[in-house]
Amino acid sequence: MKRYTIILGFLLVACSCDQPRTNFDQGIVPLEVVNFTEINSRYDDYNSAGPMMFSEDHFTLVFSSKRNRLGADFDLVSYHCLADLNNETGHFGFYTDPQGWPLLDSINTTANEYGPYIAIELTDYWLNGGAEGEEKTFYYASDETGDLDILFWNYKLENGLEIMDSGRVNGLNSPYDEGYLCHYNGASSMGETVYFTSDRDGDFDIFMATGDSAKITTSVNFDIIKLDILSGPFDDKCPYIVNDLLVFTSDREGGYGGFDLWYSSWNGSAWSAPVNFGEQINSEYNEYRPIIVPSSEGPLLNDILIFSSDRPGGAGGYDLYYTGMKRPKDYF
């Protein structure tokens, strides 16, 4: 059943307050933090993954939730999200539909599934769409063996869903916790490069890993580097990168309480010192796993930042929230 909520967003334009808005060909995501009520439940809804692009006005969101097992553990669930724009009034909202994706039925176990990531080659927004016969990769983390490991599933659509292979990304995993893999090759000219979080050095830090082949899942040897500029004596977790902007969560000093959202930009040779997103987004509670849904090819004037938080006023436990944000290039 579809649920619908309208949020009023105001476009900031370089004109006086009594001048009418003229750019009605595009909408804007509200600049305040909004509870994603269309998909939250009374259980914990946590740490999502979105598409690499915002196609027209819709995208698919995959996230961890305790709803399937009534609070017992986290499974992965997916929703199709359709933005509703009224360019004359500035209203912004979402239509959402829960999406029964067969691959998630194979992935979910009685353990916890966290940190889904839709690989860059996955360019279809309904997940089950795209070119017939095109192979795709889905990453996530599971604590089924006791510690958290990064896993993958390769699949394609050809006369239905066909699983090619699956397993652990053994070159990245250790006896400690690893998770929240994301892709980014801007910092390497070698094989496929990914970023992930691990507590192998005591607290959680952010690592970069480059494989020796075109895909991490087929690499044998890895060059793994801890990114000191993004890691410290606190917990730095959940990296996510879009267009040279890396967003992550940390309980480092300089925040507003608990875990906060931070960002860093790639200047072509190094990542910048992390910057806090500020009190407009962060709270005295915990903010986790930010992702960016870029809309540069769509009908919006800004991008969408989605994250999870246990701040008061939600549906229960951790909820997903969203807010409008500047384009990544504007953070440089």
Account of the protein in words:
This protein has 1 helix and 21 strands. With 332 residues, the protein is mostly beta strands. It has a single domain (3-331), classed as Glycosyl hydrolase domain, family 43 (Tachylectin-2, Chain A). It has a 5-stranded antiparallel β-sheet with strand order 1-6-5-4-3, with no helix packed on it. The protein is globular, with a radius of gyration of 19 Å. Residues 1-19 and 121-129 have low confidence and may be disordered.
Short description:
By secondary structure, the chain is mainly β. The protein contains one helix and 21 strands.
Low-confidence stretches: 1-19, 121-129
Q: Strands of the largest sheet, in order across it?
A: 1-6-5-4-3
**Oligomeric category:** single chain
In sequence order, what are the helices and strands, one letter per element?
EEEEEEHEEEEEEEEEEEEEEE
CATH topology: Tachylectin-2, Chain A
Q: What is the CATH architecture descriptor?
A: 5 Propeller
Number of helices: 1
Q: Name the beta content range.
A: 35-45%
Approximate shape: globular
Distance between the termini: 42 Å
